[in-house]
Specification:
By secondary structure, the chain is mainly α.
Length: about 160
């Protein structure tokens, strides 16, 4: 059952990203490295303020939906009501999501789909290299140790 839940959670992650960018990679420009963003601004394809607003809107919705889904999986679907098992399950889900993002989203989807190539920026690398992915995911692995405690705390407070 946990494998199914992890797969559904990662699918939700992917759907959230796709919904956030819609039919244009420009809608997710905040995901791109600075040189790509600067070129897009120079080309006049969008403005910094627009990107900042889209980023804030997406990240707020993304974290709210992903946290709520995880709390519901732990508390409602799995019926976990005590902190330790809720924490361990939250940690598992957050770590799987973390590495899924780096490997499946960043390297596979972004790295192998023409969708993510923004016209006029083809000469600028935008796919994260493996050392950067490993560094970022390693840092987030530690961050999610605390994040899992927050999710578990919320899950066990729901009665």
């Amino acid at each position: 059952m946990i494998i199914l839940q992890l797969a559904l959670y990662c699918a939700l992650f992917t759907l959230m990203v796709k919904a956030g960018v819609g039919n244009s990679a420009l809608n997710g420009l905040y995901f791109y490295p600075e040189p790509v963003r600067e070129r897009v601004y120079e080309l006049g394809l969008t403005e910094r303020e627009t990107v900042a607003k889209k980023r804030k809107r997406f990240m707020t919705a993304f974290f709210a939906v992903m946290a709520a889904a995880l709390v519901l999986i732990i508390r409602v679907w799995n019926g976990i009501g005590s902190f330790r098992p809720a924490y361990l399950q939250a940690l598992l889900f957050l770590e799987v999501m973390n590495w899924y993002d780096g490997i499946v989203i960043d390297r596979l989807w972004v790295g192998h789909s023409r969708f993510w190539v923004i016209p006029g920026t083809e000469d600028i690398p935008f796919v994260k290299p493996w050392p950067r992915i490993l560094r970022e995911r390693g840092i987030l692995t530690v961050v999610w140790v605390a994040g899992a405690a927050v999710i578990a705390g919320i899950a066990v407070m729901l009665r």
